[in-house]
């Protein structure tokens, strides 16, 4: 039986490299025991990758800002197209909060550039203005533990539907929020903004926020703060239960 060789000596190295890269991808083995375990307050893993705005070091890109990293399994997918457009429309609101956006999709950057044209058209954007990481090798998806059990089995090949995570990262590079969505459910960009408002309010004032909290509404004094200290720090407050006290933010 004749077996066609993968490469021939007659091809120059420059033509062999894309094939070599593809071959390496096919044999990449991801092991669960080697995967980082991200939790709230874990240090956000750093990485360097090609993006739609050039090569980027993640921590350097964030600098002293907050960050939102959100991922997608593939380009030209319907739900993800609407999500990237929505985040791009809200970019000025994120900037007001000192937050940088960065997307990720498990395909090559060249394809991202073509996809961006559709995103701009569908969401009526003049210009899509934040980077999208090219993660065709799924290295960042692995680093950030983005997939479910079935997806992990396919991480080396094919589309993995659950590369659909959101990470809110603070200026100390700590992970403050992790949400992973199924393929069928679109994200809520306004909720990501609300969470950032709540986290920043809590960090600045030493408070926590109740269910469905929105900026301007009352906040909760943590039970670890005594009534006497709460009076000094917050002034007036309302006691509903000894452990549930509301005050103005």
From TrEMBL:
Similarity comment: Belongs to the peroxiredoxin family. Prx6 subfamily.
Any GO BP: cell redox homeostasis
Reported function: Thiol-specific peroxidase that catalyzes the reduction of hydrogen peroxide and organic hydroperoxides to water and alcohols, respectively.
Active site positions: 80
SUPFAM superfamilies: Thioredoxin-like (SSF52833)
Pfam families: 1-cysPrx_C, AhpC-TSA
PANTHER family, sorted: ALKYL HYDROPEROXIDE REDUCTASE C, THIOREDOXIN PEROXIDASE
The organism's place on the tree of life at top rank: Eukaryota
GO cellular component labels: cytosol
InterPro entries per UniProt: AhpC/TSA (IPR000866), Peroxiredoxin (IPR050217), Peroxiredoxin_AhpC-typ (IPR024706), Peroxiredoxin_C (IPR019479), PRX_1cys (IPR045020), Thioredoxin-like_sf (IPR036249), Thioredoxin_domain (IPR013766)
Location of the Thioredoxin domain: 38-201
UniProt GO molecular function: thioredoxin peroxidase activity
Protein name: KLTH0C06798p
Species, as recorded: Lachancea thermotolerans (strain ATCC 56472 / CBS 6340 / NRRL Y-8284) (Yeast)
UniProt keyword terms in alphabetical order: Antioxidant, Oxidoreductase, Peroxidase, Redox-active center
